[in-house]
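Entry 12.
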Amino acid sequence: MLLVLSVAVTQQQTVLAQTNQEWRDSLSVLNQQIAQSPYSVDLHLRKAAVNLELQQWEFAVDEYKLILRNDEKNLTALFYRAYAYTHLRRYDLAKNDYNDILLEEPTHLEARLGLSYVYQLMGKRNDALDLLSIVVEQHPDSVAGYVARASLETDMRRYDAALYDWEQATRLEPENLDYHLSYVDVLIRMGKNEVARRELNKLADKGVNQGVLREYYRKIRK
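Predicted 3D structure (tokens):
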């Protein structure tokens, strides 16, 4: 789930920099620009994005607060402030921001995924699972919902449900090896070793490296 959110953060970042020093140089430039245009929402969003990249969570939160002070329904600021709050382990505040987004856009995929992740961190896995079921219902062609729900169902040992969701994930992204291996892993956990072996053989026939598959074959032998 964190990967999904991290991808979303990357999409927000408009400053192209590779090293830590380059990010800091970008931050310096943005601070100078903000001094000249203190009310520019775009500049504050870009500065906050760099703060996130540098893991300066408190500074990022301050930037988003400034934006939201003048535009309380700025969904971008709400989403990334929730992301920063999650890293600060301020889960109730992150939950509030995600809920505010969903009040405005009930089908906001990333916000509901983020809220589910926060619930998991809070130990509310059943609530998290309910949210992921809504994601799948609202976005049946999005692999993210199936993957997130399957991962949680696997952790909760709800293997029948997890197996279905991994099947859907592999249907939507048939070239993703991780999804296929997760599907095989659940089959093994369920004791369906022969089915798992057939799936591994299919992957081997497609040219998947034997070294990758060896661990799963070994589990079947036990």
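Annotation: The chain has 13 helices and no strands. The two ends are 31 Å apart (CA to CA).
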